[in-house]
Amino acid sequence: MALYINARTDVYLRELVPEADRLAETCARATRYRQAGASGIFVPKALEPQAIAAIARAVDLPLNVLAWPGLPSANELAALGVRRLSAGSAISQAVASHTAAFATSFLRDGSREAPSEGALTHRDLNALFARR
Questions:
Q1: The pTM is what?
Q2: Backbone angles phi, psi at 83, to 5 degrees
Q3: Residue 40 near residue 7 (C-beta atoms within 8 A)
């Protein structure tokens, strides 16, 4: 089994350089990562379609972006050259938020009022783990 190294650059996420320089800095870093043996490049918070397409063209690596408000749709991203779309920690953060709210209520007064709208049944939960 081959090792896949998805090199991450936080130029956009952490705003490491002025906005006008982010595309060039990201591409420069991605090129160095490719030369060092990276298998893919992960650019969280790259949102603008033109920048995403430019990164995909400039670097001969599969491009991975992070699901973020304002990001183009998955179909648009594919057309721009994105090969991977990551949820990041958003799913686990949402689960933790609901769990914390329920636990806080339960510990405060024993309330068992869990958010039930859209909740999965035990059967639905078990089906998630079934082999397909």
A1: 0.80
A2: -105, -20
A3: yes
| 8-55: pLDDT as tens digits | 999 999 999 999 999 999 999 999 999 999 999 999 999 999 999 999
* CATH 2.60.40 given to domain 6-86: no
Domain-by-domain residue ranges, the chain?
6-86, 90-128
DSSP the chain: -----EEE--TTTTT-S-GGGHHHHHHHHHHHHHHTT-SEEE-TT---HHHHHHHHHHSSS-EEEE--TTPPPHHHHHHHTEEEEE-TTHHHHHHHHHHHHHHHHHHHH-------TTPPPHHHHHHHTS--
Q: Which two tokens stand for residue 32?
A: 């160095």
pLDDT of residue 120: 82
d(C-alpha 77, C-alpha 29), whole Å? 21
